């Protein structure tokens, strides 16, 4: 199942990428919302192969997920693979400078079931694909607006 979203942010490309790749801030936000996150690779620097494990509650059940950074091309692209309960999620974020002060962000997420139980879990999601796509688009839009506000207030 594939989801895509595209948003324009009124901020320079390098600033948008810096915010989107501020993994320490993202980890702090996850922790603040009750999730547990820890870095599981050996490196200190962020780059291809960086890996995080997280545990969080979703629908009254504890979930675990491992996220690996598979592509890191500042300031233009990042890609991740996340694995949880038989589902592999591939996510890609591409950034393009529209002008010196405006950036387009393209987000693509593909969910792939790897087990029979994961296929069964995703079946109702396929039936609600339209609603889920709208919700995905809405969340990307909200995040983009928050990011734009943050960047324009710190500039």
Walk me through the topology:
Elements: E1 2-9, H1 13-20, H2 23-32, E2 36-39, E3 51-58, E4 61-73, E5 77-84, E6 87-99, E7 102-113, H3 116-127, H4 129-154
Antiparallel strand pairs: 1-7, 2-3, 3-4, 4-5, 5-6, 6-7
Describe the biggest sheet? 7 strands, antiparallel
Sheet with the most strands: spatial strand order: 1-7-6-5-4-3-2
Mean pLDDT: 92
Bin the helical content.
Answer: 25-40%
How far is it from the N-terminal to the C-terminal residue, by CA? 38 Å
Structural class by helix and strand composition: alpha+beta
Low-confidence stretches: none
How many β-strands, per DSSP?
Answer: 7
Q: From N to C, what is the helix and strand string?
A: EHHEEEEEEHH
The tally of helices reads 4
What gyration radius follows from the Cα positions, in whole Å? Answer: 16 Å
Q: Based on CA inertia axes, which overall geometry fits?
A: globular
Share of β-strand residues: 35-45%
Overview of the structural elements:
The protein has 155 residues and is an alpha+beta fold. A hairpin with a 2-residue loop joins β6 and β7. The longest helix is centred in the last third of the chain and has 26 residues. The protein is globular, with a radius of gyration of 16 Å. The mean pLDDT is 92.
Task: Describe this structure in a few short sentences.
The protein has helices spanning 13-20, 23-32, 116-127, 129-154; strands spanning 2-9, 36-39, 51-58, 61-73, 77-84, 87-99, 102-113. The chain is of the alpha+beta class. It is globular, with a radius of gyration of 16 Å.
Q: Which terms summarize this structure?
A:
single chain; 155 residues; alpha+beta; seven-stranded antiparallel beta sheet; globular
């Amino acid at each position: 199942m594939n989801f895509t979203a595209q948003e324009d942010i009124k901020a320079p490309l390098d600033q948008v990428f810096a915010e989107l790749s501020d993994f320490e801030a993202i980890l702090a936000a996850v922790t603040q919302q009750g999730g547990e996150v820890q870095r599981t690779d050996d490196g200190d620097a962020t780059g291809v192969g960086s890996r995080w494990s997280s545990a969080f509650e979703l629908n009254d059940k504890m979930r675990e997920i491992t996220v690996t950074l598979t592509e890191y091309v500042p300031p233009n692209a990042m890609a991740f693979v996340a694995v949880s309960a038989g589902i592999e999620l591939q996510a890609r974020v591409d950034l393009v400078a529209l002008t010196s002060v405006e950036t387009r962000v393209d987000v693509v997420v593909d969910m792939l079931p790897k087990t029979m139980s994961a296929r069964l879990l995703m079946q109702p999601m396929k039936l609600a694909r339209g609603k889920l796509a709208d919700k995905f688009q809405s969340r990307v839009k909200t995040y983009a607006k928050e990011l734009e506000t943050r960047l324009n207030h710190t500039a």
